[in-house]
Amino acid sequence: MPEHELHVISNGKLAWAELAAIAAEIHPYVTAIHIREKARSMDENYIGLQFLLDKGIPADRIYMNGFPWIAAAEKLAGLHLPGRSPALPTIQNSCKGVQRIGLSIHSKEEAQLREEEGADYLLYGHIFETRSKEGAEPRGLQQLQNVAGSVSIPVIAIGGITPGRVQSVLDAGASGVAVMSGIWEAADPVAAVLAYKYGLERTEVS
């Protein structure tokens, strides 16, 4: 696992073929590609996963959001769960074979609880204003610092993060960033991914 992680999370706006085509171009440069399609059924998410696998995206680069049995059956790299999920020990039997389990959290207390339960990483945000959370107050860098400083597992920051904001997020203690529209809706998704990757790697060697 690289020191700083780059997670690319699907935005629920693309057809499976388009999503898979972009994923096929960007997967060599990212830590994880998340299938996060809350408006689609379990069966539809399974079909979407097959699109990605058929395009040559390796299972060890894909994270499924929700649906533990899919992640386990296909031996995916990760399973990501929402903050309202049951305690991890109650569901870990259905996640055997999955390399990492992560959760979305919204406070320091949640972060500490999920670490105690055995989470491998946490997703925290939104850090900056973002179109996907219009009207909702961003949590900001200070709260990110508080959360990241309260746990020993990686905290991945999400929400309004541009390549130019990567440095400030890492300085606040994040172990990486998660991006949605900044990559899927970019005119050149590969160039967009490389801009984030450069920001993360530049910090590692500085």
Largest sheet: 8 strands, parallel, barrel
Our Rg estimate from Cα atoms comes to 16 Å
Report the uncertain regions.
none
Measured by DSSP, the beta-strand proportion falls in: 15-25%
**H/E element string?**
EHEHEHEEHEHEHEHH
The quaternary organization reads as single chain
Structural class by sheet pairing and helices: alpha/beta
Distance between the termini: 19 Å
User: What's the total helix number?
Assistant: 8
User: Quick check: average pLDDT?
Assistant: 94
Shape: globular
**What is the helical fraction, as a range of percent?**
25-40%
Count the E strands.
8
The largest sheet has its strands arranged as 1-2-3-4-5-6-7-8
Which tags fit this structure?
alpha/beta, 206 residues, 8-stranded parallel β-barrel, globular, single chain
Your description of this structure?
It is a single chain. The protein has 206 residues and is of the alpha/beta class. It has helices at residues 16-26, 42-54, 68-73, 108-117, 140-148, 166-171, 181-184, 189-205, and strands at residues 5-9, 32-35, 62-65, 78-81, 100-105, 121-125, 155-158, 176-179. It has an eight-stranded parallel barrel, surrounded by four helices. Helix 1 packs across helix 2 (42-54). The longest helix has 17 residues, at 189-205. The mean pLDDT is 94.
Describe this structure in a few short sentences.
Helices cover 37% and strands 17% of the residues.
Topology:
Elements: E1 5-9, H1 16-26, E2 32-35, H2 42-54, E3 62-65, H3 68-73, E4 78-81, E5 100-105, H4 108-117, E6 121-125, H5 140-148, E7 155-158, H6 166-171, E8 176-179, H7 181-184, H8 189-205
Parallel strand pairs: 1-2, 1-8, 2-3, 3-4, 4-5, 5-6, 6-7, 7-8
